[in-house]
């Protein structure tokens, strides 16, 4: 993939963005695999929600956003959305495990 500044057409830029988006989605799928496995180590909804861990995660992601010159607001929104969905999935998996 070309460097962004080396692109000479809008199609090249869009193609690169599409490839990056696919890579991001593949990483999200990999992250989700771990979300499915972490439930083995959590015994209740409080452990799933893990408010202290969430706070640490958001603070760390904000530092990473600063290091990578990303919008802290965007990074915060992305991770809060992702974590909220992951918590919902973990709760669902926890309930299923209790039924089984």
TL;DR of this structure?
The mean pLDDT is 94. The chain has helices spanning 10-38, 45-49, 51-67, 72-99.
Strand content: under 5%
In the CATH hierarchy, what is the architecture of the domain at 32-99 at level 2? Answer: Up-down Bundle
Give me the CATH fold name of the domain at 32-99.
Answer: Chorismate Mutase Domain, subunit A
| SS-based class | mainly alpha
Q: H/E element string?
A: HHHH
Tally of alpha and pi helices: 4
GO biological process, one term: chorismate metabolic process
Organism: Mangrovibacterium marinum
GO molecular function: chorismate mutase activity; lyase activity
InterPro entries: Chorismate_II_sf (IPR036263), Chorismate_mutase-related (IPR051331), CM_dom_sf (IPR036979), CM_II_prokaryot (IPR002701)
Description:
- The protein contains 4 helices and no strands.
- By secondary structure, the protein is mainly alpha-helical.
- The protein has a domain at about 30-100: Chorismate Mutase Domain, subunit A, CATH 1.20.59.10.
- Helix 3 packs antiparallel against helix 4 (about 70-100).
- The chain is elongated, with a radius of gyration of 18 Å.
- The model has no long low-confidence stretch (mean pLDDT about 95).
- It is an enzyme of class 5 (isomerase).
- Its EC number is 5.4.99.5.
- Pfam families: CM_2.
- Keywords: Coiled coil, Isomerase, Lyase, Pyruvate.
């Amino acid at each position: 993939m070309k460097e962004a500044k080396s692109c000479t057409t809008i199609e090249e830029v869009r193609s690169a963005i599409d490839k990056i988006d696919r890579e991001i989605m593949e990483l999200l799928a990999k992250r989700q695999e771990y979300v499915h496995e972490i439930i083995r180590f959590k015994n209740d909804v409080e452990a799933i929600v893990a408010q202290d861990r969430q706070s640490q995660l958001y603070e760390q992601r904000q530092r990473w956003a600063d290091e990578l010159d990303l919008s802290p607001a965007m990074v915060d929104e992305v991770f809060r959305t992702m974590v909220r969905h992951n918590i919902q999935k973990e709760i669902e998996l926890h309930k299923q495990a209790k039924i089984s």
